[in-house]
Design brief:
With 128 residues, the chain is an all-alpha fold. It is built from five helices and no strands.
């Protein structure tokens, strides 16, 4: 659904949809990392500005993306790495929920940092 009252929001939405439709599976995972990290930063910002509704919305969206990342793991091909990532995503999801409940910006920052490291490694293994 387009937002006709906010052209900038419409543009952003269209740009994201285009990226997703044109992306290969590797790029889709990159976009998920970027989205989760962006939302974690938004949750931090919501705490800093006292906008707890923004914080809660961003935290819920980040948690959903992290859960989706976990659902993308292939345990047959990924073996021990997939198992470790599953444990890390589980921790990250629980940490986001706890940070949301406690208005803990450091918790959001911690998870963003963890995801940023995995995101960097994921980008480094991009298939040719």
């Amino acid at each position: 659904m387009m937002n006709t009252r906010n052209p900038a929001a419409t543009y952003r939405s269209t740009a994201v949809e285009t990226k997703v439709h044109e992306a290969d599976p590797h790029r889709l995972i990159e976009l998920m990392f970027e989205g989760a990290i962006q939302r974690l930063r938004a949750a931090e910002g919501g705490i800093a500005t006292g906008d707890l509704a923004r914080k809660a919305k961003a935290a819920a969206e980040a948690g959903a993306i992290i859960d989706s990342l976990s659902g993308c793991l292939d345990f047959q091909q990924g073996g021990e790495i997939a198992e470790r990532l599953a444990a890390l995503y589980d921790y990250a999801s629980r940490r986001v929920a706890a940070a949301n409940a406690a208005d803990d910006a450091a918790g959001f920052a911690e998870v963003a940092s963890l995801l940023d490291e995995i995101h960097s490694a994921w980008k480094a293994i991009r298939p040719a």
